[in-house]
Amino acid sequence: MKSRLAPLFACLLAASCAGPGSSTSNNGRPDEWGHRPGPQGFDTVIIDAGHGGKDPGAVSRATGQKEKDLALDTAKRLQRQLGGRVKTRLMRSDDRFIELDDRASRASGKGGTILVSLHYNSSSSGIRGPETYYWRVDSHGLATRFQRAMAAVSPAESGNRGLVRRRLRLTRNPDIPCVLLELGYLSNAAEAKLCADPAYRDKMAAAIARAILDQQAKGDAGTGPLPRPINAPPSRPTDPAGS
Ligand SMILES: [Zn+2]
């Protein structure tokens, strides 16, 4: 989304999107801190289409497309791709604005549930590629699967920024495993054109769906060591950039 702030973080700031837990797989049980391995065997996925209504998110100069519309379209494609193999709930199913704190609280307190938030990014025109943001230890395996899945579809990666641990309102504040995906940069003309192609969005949605089903079946297996727990307060709109 457009902002006077450092462009790389612009969308994320707009999206600045929740004590220690047990040492066994959490199956998506609510837990404020998320200091535990990732979920396995969860039964519900909340799909959050970023932005909406009065908040368009990023707007592509190349295609004129708005992040809010692409995110909603991708959310519905992901729901279709999951095809009843896991229950799905859309955070929004039309062009409406929902506050980030409301999104976080709507996702919280639900057992057997994970949250995935879908966005398209904006920065200087040379940067492109999908990125994945997580904070909680119990979201690392999912995040790793998502980034691998999107990178396998995308022809370009954003250097070493593909998988990023960052405290955002939708990566820190929900009390269930939660990950925020940036599927591509609308500020890059070539990537904006790719993202404008429904077939490309469908491929991305299919890859993200496979990542979810892999996590559901295998937990964190094959996603590498867990990151260290960090005790930090919930993300607030007033937090400095990148915190
Ligand atoms: Zn966004």
UniProtKB/TrEMBL annotation:
Gene3D superfamilies: Zn-dependent exopeptidases. It is an enzyme of class 3 (hydrolase). It catalyses: Hydrolyzes the link between N-acetylmuramoyl residues and L-amino acid residues in certain cell-wall glycopeptides. Keywords: Hydrolase, Signal. Its EC number is 3.5.1.28. Residues 1-20 form the signal peptide. It comes from the Bacteria. Residues 19-68, 218-243 are annotated as: Disordered. Residues 226-237 have a biased composition (Pro residues). InterPro entries: MurNAc-LAA_cat (IPR002508), N-acetylmuramoyl_amidase_3 (IPR050695). It holds the Pfam family Amidase_3. Residues 104-213 form the MurNAc-LAA domain. PANTHER family: N-ACETYLMURAMOYL-L-ALANINE AMIDASE, N-ACETYLMURAMOYL-L-ALANINE AMIDASE AMIC. This is N-acetylmuramoyl-L-alanine amidase.
